[in-house]
Specification:
Length: 216
């Protein structure tokens, strides 16, 4: 596990091999006095408290948060003329505290657990519509929603095995926000456009086949 993660063997043993994301981000480069980004593991920033168990902030947000918030507020006000007195915020506690994460899965009468889980909804949608196509896009360096966690969860969906072929995966050498890298953004655009075109082509072929059947 030390070889896979880069963490010291002694630390992993003290943690009983159970290391959380914030712990990993704090420990990986602690010897250099740096913390690793959560949204993108390639970003680093100074450690605020070397004795802390977990990171106190995400270097990614520190690096790109301000310009993104400034840009979207500028676009909303000057280009779209959106006049409502609500500033755009990212990772706002005010929004997070007001958000209701409870969700009633298909076939249930009450919310399951205390966090949103829409995987049962996706499984039900794929089962009810076997022609439904799903596309998963993820960055290799994303520590918030790790790319292989998405693969694992998709493969655990309670659906017929043949429906797994309806799920397509595309991965990029980026973090959580694929669009931060111009090359990856171009790849993402091309992949999504191809995905949409293939779905449209399949629909057109199905419609044409139905029309031919009626003609006979």
């Amino acid at each position: 596990m030390s070889r896979f993660t880069g963490l010291d063997t002694s630390y992993l043993l003290r943690a009983d091999l159970r290391v959380t994301g914030p712990q990993f981000e704090q420990q990986l480069l602690l010897g250099r006095g740096e913390a690793t980004g959560q949204l993108d593991g390639r970003f680093t920033g100074p450690v605020m408290d070397p004795l802390s168990e977990a990171t106190a902030y995400d270097p990614v947000i520190a690096a790109i948060g301000s310009p993104y918030v400034a840009s979207i507020n500028e676009y909303l006000r000057r280009t779209l003329h959106f006049a409502a007195p609500f500033p755009y915020q990212i990772l706002s506690d005010a929004v997070g505290d007001a958000w209701n994460p409870l969700h009633v899965p298909p076939g249930e009468s009450a919310p399951a657990g205390n966090a949103t889980n829409v995987m049962p909804d996706l499984a039900a949608a794929l089962t009810l519509d076997p022609d439904l196509k799903v596309m998963v896009n993820a960055g290799y360096f994303d520590l918030t929603t790790p790319y292989y966690a998405a693969v694992y969860q998709m493969r655990q969906l309670p659906i017929a095995h043949k429906l797994q072929q309806n799920i397509e995966y595309c991965f990029y050498r980026t973090g959580h926000m694929i669009y931060l890298d111009p090359h990856a953004l171009a790849q993402l655009h091309a992949n999504i456009a191809s995905f949409i075109r293939s779905a449209d082509d399949a629909q057109c072929q199905e419609t044409a086949a139905s029309g031919a059947g009626r003609g006979r």
